[in-house]
Amino acid sequence: MRLIYFSHGYNPHDRRFLTALAKTHHSVHYLPLLNSNWDRAEGEIPAEITIEEPLQNSSRIKWLRYPGLVHQLQRRFERIQPELIHAGPIHLSATLAALTDFHPLVSMSWGSDLLWSTRNPWVAGIARYTLARSDAFVGDCRAVQTAAIHYGMDKDRIVIFPWGVDLNHFSPKNGIELRKNLGWENNFILISTRSFESLYGVDMILKAFIQLAPVFSKLRLLLLGDGSLKEHFENRLNKEGLLERVHFAGVVDRERLPDYYRSADVYVSASRSDGSSVSLMEALACGVPALVSDIPGNCEWVEPGVNGWCFMDGDVNSLVSALRALLHEPGGLGELGLGARTTAEHRANWHDNFPKLLDAYQIAVEHVSTGNR
C-alpha cells in the first residue's frame, strides 16, 4: 500500500516510526509540515522511504495559513496518489489532513495534543473536528484513549500502544565511566531528560534540588536537553552557588544516551502532561528507578515500591519530600532498578509494539471499504 506519513516536522519519534515502516511492505512517503530538523531527516531516514519537501519552509505555523496549506496538501496528494494518510499530532498535521477530506485517514496523538492543549476550547473543537473525520486513531496510553473517546472517536477504531524503546540499546549496564568523567563517582545523581519548557516541569526539579542540595552534599543533577528556560536555569543555579553540582549535557545523541541513564541513581520527571513518555521508558529499560509526577500517563508506568515513586503534580513540596525520603534511605534502589527493567521488558518493547500501528492502518482501510465514508 502506498501511504503518506505526514508529521509536524522531524524528531526522534518520526525517525523510529519511519525506520520501522521502511521494513514493511508499504511504499512510504514522508511529508513534513515544517522544515524543522530537515538536515537531520535527510541523513537519518532509510533509503526505502521517499522524502518529500516540507509543506512550509519555516519552523512555525499560523492558523491563518491553514486554507493555503490545505490547498498545497491536496496538490501533494494528487501527485503522490496515496492509498492511506497517517498524520499527527492531532491539531496540526492531522487537522490539515482532515480538512482535505482524504480517506482513509489514520490520526495519531502525540500525548499532550489531547491531554494538555485541548484545555483551550478552540483547540478542543479542532480535536473533535479532526477525530470525526478520522477512520482510525492511534494513541500511546489509556489516558489518551479516554480523551479521544471524549472528543468523539469511536472506541472500536482506536489502537493504543505505548510505542516503546529498543531494549537491546537501552539496557542496564555499569555507568561508572561517565561518573568518573564528571568526578561524581561517589555522589547521588538525579537525571532529567525533558525539554527546558514550562510544560515539562524542569523548573520544579531545580527548585527541589536547590532546597535539598545544602543538606545533602552528595546530591548531583544531570540535565539533558535544551529549551527557552536554559539561561534562566543557569542564572538561578549560579546565584545559589550550585552550578558546579549540575551538569548541563545538552542534546545527547541516541548512541550515548543509555550511558547517561546508567550513570544516574534516579530518573526524575515533573512533567505536567505526558502520554507514555519515551524518556521514562528509556530510563526504566536501563534499570533506573523513576520519580515522576502523578499525572495519568506516568501512573500507567510507575508503581510505587516496585519500580519507583510518584509525587503530586505541580507540588514542589511533594517532590522535595519524596526526594528527601529516598536520599535518607537509598538502600532499595537496586531492587527497584530490577523492577524498572522488568516493567520495560513486559510492556515497552518497541519491536513487539510497533506492529499495532499496522493494525490501525487495516482498521482505517476496512472502515472506508465498508462504506462508512
Tell me the distance between the termini. Answer: 19 Å
Average pLDDT for all residues: 94
Just name the CATH architecture of the largest domain: 3-Layer(aba) Sandwich
Largest sheet: 7 strands, parallel
Give the % helix. 40-55%
Number of domains: 2
> What is the radius of gyration?
21 Å
What is the oligomer described by this structure? Answer: single chain
What best-fitting shape do the alpha-carbon axes yield? elongated
Low-confidence segments:
none
The CATH topology of the largest domain turns out to be Rossmann fold
Structure characterization notes:
The structure is a single chain. The longest helix is centred in the last third of the chain and has 18 residues. This protein folds into 2 domains: 179 residues, Rossmann fold (3-Layer(aba) Sandwich); 174 residues, Glycogen Phosphorylase B (Rossmann fold, 3-Layer(aba) Sandwich). The radius of gyration is 21 Å and the shape is elongated. With 373 residues, it is α/β, with parallel strands linked by helices.
Task: Summarize the topology.
Blueprint: E1 2-7, H1 12-21, E2 27-32, H2 38-44, E3 50-51, H3 66-80, E4 84-88, H4 90-99, E5 105-108, H5 112-115, H6 121-132, E6 136-139, H7 142-150, E7 158-160, H8 176-182, E8 188-192, H9 202-212, E9 219-224, H10 230-239, E10 246-250, H11 257-263, E11 266-269, H12 278-285, E12 290-293, H13 296-299, E13 308-311, H14 316-328, H15 333-347, H16 350-353, H17 355-372
Parallel strand pairs: 1-2, 1-4, 2-3, 4-5, 5-6, 6-7, 8-9, 8-11, 9-10, 11-12, 12-13
